[in-house]
Design a protein that fits this description.
The structure is a single chain. By secondary structure, this protein is mainly alpha-helical. The chain has one domain. It has 2 helices and no strands. α1 runs antiparallel to α2. The longest helix is centred in the middle third of the chain and has 61 residues. The radius of gyration is 26 Å and the shape is rod-shaped. The two termini are 43 Å apart. The model has no long low-confidence stretch (mean pLDDT 91).
Length: 93
């Protein structure tokens, strides 16, 4: 009977270790997906910033800067920034 109890405890310990390893791996995969999505959105925001800067400079050269034209882009950037904040909160530490 003593041997059986030892093997049961060993099997239980190994099972718990495998479960923890699987959990850690899943967390790593989930974090990687979230970080990739965050990075992608940040790239989109950088492109929008570039578009705004280019557009404003072109308007400046023509002597007619009208920021109203860029409101939709500003709102899009704001929405994307909020999405990034939500994704960062989902990251598993």
């Amino acid at each position: 009977m003593k041997d059986r109890s030892y093997w049961d405890k060993l099997l239980e310990t190994l099972s718990e270790g495998v479960e923890e390893l699987a959990k850690g791996t899943n967390n790593l995969i989930e974090n990687s997906k979230l970080k990739y999505e965050i990075h992608s959105i940040e790239g989109d925001i950088k492109k929008l910033f570039y578009d705004i800067g280019s557009g404003i400079y072109e308007d400046y050269k023509c002597g007619d800067i009208n920021l109203k034209e860029y409101e939709d882009i500003f709102k899009t950037i704001h929405t994307l920034e909020k999405k990034i904040d939500k994704l960062k909160k989902k990251l598993i530490t």
